[in-house]
Amino acid sequence: MGLFERYLSVWVGLAIIVGIIAGSIMPDAFTVISTLEFAHVNIVVAVLIWLMIYPMMVQIDFSSIKDVGKKPKGLVLTLVINWLIKPFTMAFLGWLFFKVLFADWVDPQTATEYIAGMILLGVAPCTAMVFVWSQMTKGDANYTLVQVSINDIIMIFAFAPIAGLLLGVTDITVPWDTLLLSVVLYVLVPLVAGALTRKKLDQGADHSKIDTFLAKMKPWSILGLLATVTLLFGFQADTILSKPEAIVLIAIPLLIQTYGIFAIAYYMAKRIKLPHNVAAPACMIGTSNFFELAVAVAISLFGLHSGAALATVVGVLVEVPVMLSLVWFANRTRHWFVNE
C-alpha cells in the first residue's frame, strides 16, 4: 500500500481544511467556479472526477470475465451484498438517523439531502481501492479482478434504477435525465475509455506498459481527488463553519453501515465456506464504496453546495480508516476460514 493510500484520510483532512479556509476568504472565486455548468454538470468538477476515475478503469481487465465460473460462491456473495442488501440498508439508516433520531438537529431539506448522499454511496460499489484491500489481506488477485469487472458491468445498468428507486422512496424528486447522464459520463464513458486504453497498451500482453502508464497517471488521480475535496468544502465553507457538527452526524450512520455490512458479508462467507483468499476481498468489495462516482452524481443531481455532496465527501473521510481496521480484523481471523 503506497504512502498516499495509507494516509488518504490525512490528505483528505488537509484538503478539507484548505477548502474551508479558501472558501471563507475567497467566496467570489468559488461562486465563479460553481457557475461553470453544462446540463447540470459542473465542468471543473467533471474534469477532476475524470482524473480520478479513468486510471481506475484502465486497471480493469475484462478478459478475466471468462473465469467467472470459477469459485462462483464468492462472486454471488459480492453481488448479493452490493446490489440486494447494501443500497437498502444505507437508505434505511439514512432515513432512521436523519428523519427520526437526528430530526431535531437537522432541518428537513438538509436531512433529505444527507440521505440522498448516503444512498448514492450505498449504490456505488468499490472499483479501485478494493485492489489495495485485497492485496493487504492476501486475497486472490485474479479473482478480485473478476469480481470488480462484473460489478462494473452491472453498475452501468443497475446504478440509475436502484438509485432512482431509493431516492424516490425517500421522497426525493429524481431528475432522471441528469441521473442517466451521470451514469454515462462517470461510468460508461470512462469504462470504455479505460478498456480501449488497456487494449492498446497490452497488445503484446506486456503488462509493464500498463503499469508504467498507471504510475504516470497516479499523481493526476491524486490531484483530482484532493482538488475535488478542496472545492466541495470551499463551496460548503459557510455551512460547515456555522454547523461543524454536520460532519459528525453524517459520519455516525456511515460508520454503522460500513461495519454492519462487513459483519453480514463476513458471516455469510464463513457459512458458505469460502477460502479466506476469496472471502476477504469479496467482503471488502461489498463493504467499500466507489465514492468518486457518488460525489460526481451528488453534485450533478443536487449541486455543489448541497448536503448530498457533503455526505459523499464525508464518506471519503470515514472509509479509509474504517477499511484499514477491517483489513486488520480479516487478517487476524484468517484461521476461521479454509485456506488455499
Care to describe what's here?
- With 340 residues, this protein is mostly helical.
- Helix content is 78%, strand content 1%.
- It has 15 helices and 2 strands.
- The protein has helices spanning 3-6, 8-25, 27-34, 43-58, 72-101, 108-122, 129-136, 141-169, 176-201, 207-235, 237-242, 245-271, 276-287, 291-302, 307-332, and strands at residues 37-38, 41-42.
- A two-stranded antiparallel sheet has the order 1-2.
- A hairpin with a 2-residue loop joins strand 1 (37-38) and strand 2 (41-42).
- Helix 4 crosses helix 9 (176-201), helix 5 runs parallel beside helix 13 and helix 9 (176-201) packs antiparallel against helix 14 (291-302).
- The longest helix is centred in the first third of the chain and has 30 residues, at 72-101.
- The model has no long low-confidence stretch (mean pLDDT 83).
- InterPro entries: Arsenical-R_Acr3, BilAc:Na_symport/Acr3, Na+/solute_symporter_sf.
- It is found in: Cell membrane.
List the keywords:
340 residues, mainly alpha, two-stranded antiparallel sheet, 15 helices, 2 strands, 78% helix, 1% strand, globular
If you compute it from the alpha carbons, what radius of gyration comes out, rounded to the nearest whole angstrom?
A: 19 Å
How far apart the termini lie comes to 23 Å
Total number of β-strand segments?
2
Helix/strand order, N-terminal first:
HHHEEHHHHHHHHHHHH
Uncertain residue ranges: none
Placed side by side, the strands forming the largest sheet appear as 1-2
Percentage of residues in helical conformation: over 70%
**What structural class do helix, strand and pairing data support?**
mainly alpha
Task: Estimate the mean pLDDT confidence.
Answer: 83
Classify the beta-strand content into a percent band.
Answer: under 5%
What is the overall number of helices? 15
Assign an overall shape: globular
Largest sheet: 2 strands, antiparallel
Family: Belongs to the arsenical resistance-3 (ACR3) (TC 2.A.59) family.
Subcellular location: Cell membrane
InterPro entries: Arsenical-R_Acr3, BilAc:Na_symport/Acr3, Na+/solute_symporter_sf
Protein name: ACR3 family arsenite efflux transporter
